[in-house]
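A common beginner's mistake is to predict each chain separately and then try to dock the pieces by hand. The better habit, illustrated here, is to supply every component at once so that their relative placement is modeled jointly.
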Amino acid sequence: MLHHHAALNFSFDYSIESESANNEIIEHYYRGKFISNALKDNVSKNLTEHNRSGGSINGGFNYIQKFRSDSNAALLWSVGLHSRYYLDLSFPQDAFEIYFRGNKQFRGKQAELDDIYLRSISYQQFYFGIHKDYYRSSTQSGWSAALALNKGQKLFSLEIPKASVITADDGYYLDVDLSIKIRQNDSASSALSAFNGFGFSGFLQYYHRNKQGHEFRMAANNLGFINWNNKSSYVPADSTFRFEGIDISQLFDFTDTVKATINNDSSFVQGFLTRREKQSFTHLLPFETGISYRHVFNDRIYLESGIRQRWFTKAIPLIYSEVAYQFNEQHKARTKLSYGNYSGLRLGLAYSFNYRNSWSFSIESDYLSSLLVYSSGRSQGAFVSLSKYF
Amino acid sequence: MSKSSLAFLLFVLLGSTACKKENSHPQWDLDVLGPVFKASIGLENLLADSLQDINGDGAVSLYYESNLYDLKLDSVYQIPDTTIPTILTWPLFPSVIQPNSPFYSNNNNVVLSISGVQLKLVTIRSGFIQLELRNKLPSKVIYTYTIPGALKNNTPFTIVQEVNAAGPGGPGTFTGTYDFSGYAVDLTGAGGNLFNTISYNVQALSDPNGTPFTVNLNDTIINLRSSLIDIQPYYAKGYLGQSDISEQGVENIGIGGLIKSGMILLDSIRMDMNLENSIGADARFLFSGLTSVNNRTGTQIALQAPTLINRTININRAVESGNSADPVLSTQYPVAVTSSNSNLNAFLENLPDKINYAVSIAFNPLGNISSFNDFIYSDYLVRANLKIEMPLRFAAQQLVLADTQALNIEGITALDPVGESQLKLFADNGFPLDLDLQLFILDEQKQILDSLLSPGFINKGMLDANYRVTNTTRTILTIPLSHDRKQKLLAGKYLGVRARFDSPDFPQKVQLYQHNRLDLRLVADGIYSIR
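With all components supplied together, the output reads:
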């Protein structure tokens, strides 16, 4: 509910979560630092048969303004522009080991690489929304609806439902069984300004507050899609092949004086990935639903619990509970306990500062506990927001 | 600056520092094990397909065929470029010439400078006739140049060309070049009783639309130069004379270039020399010498073969078939040279790079017995075809094959990410020969940077009682790959391959079969750095 006539808000948030990869290796990977065997060991001990990881980065602004307001209701409209990135990853234990340690540990054995899933998407969203608040004698309720235009910037999608690699005991050959689908945006441009796809999303929220101030809220956010253009590449392959080395027989051709040219790509990569197409395709964006209940104890303290689910991703439901304490008109803090999405139990903290009812600044992290034990923590993230009220 | 602003700035600074990348890509090391290169070497890598003959049981024979000697047409005769001037002057007292008045210069015979033969007829494959006309008369003149004996589709060669009248600047002139190909040219002259002689006519006609003009004694009526240029005959008939052609030449074999040293003992060899006469004239061959030359050792071995060397061989003339598609029925004379009637084994065991030959051919040793009915087609002459066939069955002692290939490896991942590793060369030998294989990395000057195999001994395949391979034998050679060796590989421009062969139980001979193969596979076991 907006007490002011209008508000302009800037926000930025990021999060990275993993069931197995800790913050240290993620940081090393992102910053191009050397990943030692000790770092890999710290991850390996957490690996299960299937492992999920995910992340997101969002940044943007939105503006909301009252259209009309009286004692019974208020109608507001809003616009906003956000740039979004999300990563959704699922992989088996052997995939991590082969990727980071190599295949030598699997000599004489089969590395199981089934069910590798990776989706990395960058897109921009411009939305327009309408909000309505209803004021009754003892209750208040309201709904919000918004429609967004999605501009697809960058896409990389990898699906490997079935794969295995057998390394001969003496390294004499590699047997690869692979079913793979790779999708990627038009390679000509992946910059922020690139228009590689187009789509729509919808947002819907509803809340109800009783006279004690207890509030029930439910939301369905970002139900939408992006249709990537017909310059998007699609590379499917389903094949079994044995790699026995690059053929250099012509180097031993004593009958030929023509120079021998060896090309490793032509030896097996091109031979395997024979089907490369350009085609458009549509994918559904992460769609989040949630319900929450806030119990207000007094003017200063409330307890809120809720559950959220991010559909069309590998995330599991997120459940959380948070306690907020309003110190005074300016300062407010929250502590939050949550579990789910891509990682386990974590403790978060939030702080907001209100300046003369004109500015508001918030900073929070749901992953404080993981950040404090950085080398073993398997999640991190932060949210900052700055609002101006008119 | 307020505390809140300062805090905000600090937050931004810390955040940006935390996000700063040390390198553009993540980095780690992999322990890898897997095949890198493979090669399957069979006889097709040592011998071109054209040199192999496969028997029913897969036994390979070496088969070599070449035209050792090919007679060139210009060794028999050739038609040189010839320029023929034709000048006709007014022989009488001054006269008035009316329009449309003709002047003739007919039955002009020109003897072509063709030596050694007496030709009655020649068919032109390609060539040109160039005409240069000069008109000194005060009237336009129309010239008609005809070679009655040059027929194409039953039409004689005729050129009609008008030349403008002479003027203040000088005589009227014209130069033109005409295609003479496809013409059958009678060379018996205007009377039909000469040889090597072309007959032609020239008519000059005063302009039919012109005005009368006066000519005086010795005024030039016709001034014409005709030239035969680049005349290439296709067919000629007449008497080809009693030419005696001697030639010495070289046929490059190249075996010695491949084999660098060692001893080889060959099995039975057969060499067939087929002499073919496609000329319509009797011929007499004499091979005065065939010498095997090994450039590396300098050894020369002359072939001792009484059936071929220093033996006069008479070959009858060819006959015309009447089939324009294949106009000649050649006469063949095969001569067989074997290990039993010659020193052919020693001749080839010298591993020659080339064969020097000396041959002489005499035509019409008995004179003009055909009464000028000898013939010669430019595409059907005389040749000596050499065929050598021997089973690839031999005994080898320290026989070294060597070759150098330009190392042009594109697309291979750079070796920089490769750390300390061990390479293993798996050699599955299906040849009945022990092999000492060496691979050298050479620089631009072909100097050795590194030798990759030490030792490089590869055992022969498993043999039965007949020295036939029943199963391959695997040998594993280890090649440590240090940083230093890696740098040399990167600097290499050539790959030198040297293989030293030894057959079992020398001088026992072993047969090579089509299925004999040497399979090589290089496996890497080491560190690969992702950077």
